[in-house]
Amino acid sequence: MNSTLDPAPALQQLLAFKGLLVLLWLLLALVLEQWRPAALPPLSLAGYGAAWFARWGRNLGLFALGAALSSLLVLPVTIWASSLQLWTRPAAVPPLAWPLIDIVLLDLWIYWWHRANHVVPFLWRFHEVHHRDRHLDATSALRFHFGELFLSALVRAVVIIALAIPLQSVLVFEALVLVAAIFHHANWRLPAGFERALSRVIITPSRHWVHHHRVRRDTDSTYGTIFSFWDPLFRSTTPTQRTQLMEIGVEGREEADFIALIGLPSRGAAPATAPAEAQAETAMQALPAAK
Ligand SMILES: [Zn+2]
């Protein structure tokens, strides 16, 4: 075992670089979304009026809470877990290969964690906050309940300890997850051929938007975060293709205000308010995807 609980200057630099990278990528996504949007927002959010900015307030408010919690709890838990090296990694593997192996392993972990969030009712209480968004853009990638972030950090700590994953690999992975999440939630229209080629390796917006389709069958599919090969491997794909007017959200549920979203996990599963509504509205999806 070694002790690296004190944030060393190298760690501070890595954290600063991660923050700057994510901020610049977010700003780029927000600009490109205005330039070449792929989907129209629902009428209730159209026009960049009060409802639009209230939505941004909810998403960015949840992000601010999550970021505060991350520095107070998630980072210390991660530093602690990565300081417990229960076994020594074999020298036969070239040192430069380990970061790549770690990223693939952590992406495999987050695939199953995400899947568990949809299958285990207690975890869905938290993850539902992310899915209640009725439209998607780069800010949706930042919209998570802090309870989900904390639970994720606790379970991930077990993975980090079991696989002896160093802190640097975890922080690089976290940065990649944020970059990937902003990319596949963003409402930007990519050239069709480019996106098709990219989707063979990584999760693209067309794939992930189907995960946010307001039809539970599709919501419970396509769990990948960075790499796109886990879903076919573990049989969690859906034949549904993204369409321009695809309705986004949770079937039978509505968006809630910021305070209600914070308290959502404590309320548990409320009865669906309008189970037939999603099906009626998805019948309107006649336009092909704009890409
Ligand atoms: Zn999900």
Helical content, roughly?
55-70%
Strand portion: under 5%
Could you say which structural class the secondary elements and strand pairing correspond to? mainly alpha
> Please, how many domains?
1
| Uncertain stretches | 1-5, 270-291
Biggest sheet features: none
Question: What hetero molecules are bound to the protein chains?
Answer: zinc ion
Description of the molecule:
This protein is an all-alpha fold and 291 residues long. The protein has one domain. The protein has helices spanning 9-35, 50-83, 97-119, 121-131, 146-163, 167-185, 192-198, 205-211, 216-219, 230-233, 258-267, 275-282. Helix 3 (97-119) packs across helix 4 (121-131). It is globular, with a radius of gyration of 19 Å. The N and C termini lie far apart (51 Å). The relative contact order is 0.15. The protein binds zinc ion.
